[in-house]
Each structure stands twice: as C-alpha cells, then as structure tokens.
Amino acid sequence: MRVEFDEDTCIGMYQCVAEWDAFSKDKSAGKAVLEGSEEETEGIFVRDVPGDAELDAKFAARTCPVDAITIYDDDGEQLIP
Fold first, then answer.
1. Which of 6, 4, 17, 11 is nearest to 29 (CA)?
2. What is the pLDDT of residues 52-65, one digit of tens each?
3. What is the pLDDT of residue 80?
4. Are 45 and 8 within 8 A, CB to CB?
5. What are the residues facing 3 on neighbouring strands?
6. Where are the domains of the chain?
7. Quick one: which of 40, 38, 45, 51 has its CA closest to 16?
C-alpha cells in the first residue's frame, strides 16, 4: 500500500495527525507533513504504508476535509479518497 500527500491542497486542519502518526504538524507552514516521504513531483509526497499502519493510513485519508491524501493498493489502484 502507498500513500500520496498533496501538500499544496492541505489546509492545515491536522485531522490526519490525529489518525496516523506518520503525519505531523508544521505550524509555521500551516500544513501537515508526511514523515518519511519523498517528494515525487512538486508538492506531492509519497511513501509506502507499513502493514500494521494500513488502517490508520486509510482513516487519515478519509478524515482529510480537502482530499489531500490518496491511498493506493500494491497494484496502483486508488482506494481512497
């Protein structure tokens, strides 16, 4: 499973931070940060989701009010939003 985070879309509600510890707050930027991720393209950060964190990652994506978090399965199929 893979998570994609669109930092430009993020509005800093930090609901993802409450759902998955891979997200943290960057209060100076007013955005969430996807820890351990790499910038795939400008403003888009990606990382693999460990097996034991899949449910947390899905909850983080579902709670994002602006759909800045997308979850993909191992075949590249979009699961969430």
1. 11
2. 999 999 999 999 99
3. 82
4. no
5. 47, 71
6. 2-80
7. 45
Cα–Cα distance for residue pair 69/79, rounded to 1 Å: 11
Look up residue 57 and give its two tokens: 């990652």
Class at the top of the CATH hierarchy for domain 2-80: alpha beta
- The pTM of this model reads 0.93
Question: Minimal CA–CA distance to 55: which of 5, 7, 13, 3?
Answer: 3
DSSP the chain: -EEEEETTT--S--HHHHH-TTEEEETTTTEEEETT-EEEETTEEEEE--GGGHHHHHHHHHH-TT--EEEE-TTS-EEE-
Length of the chain: 81
Q: Which residues contact 78 (CB under 8 A, 6 or more apart)?
A: 70, 71, 72
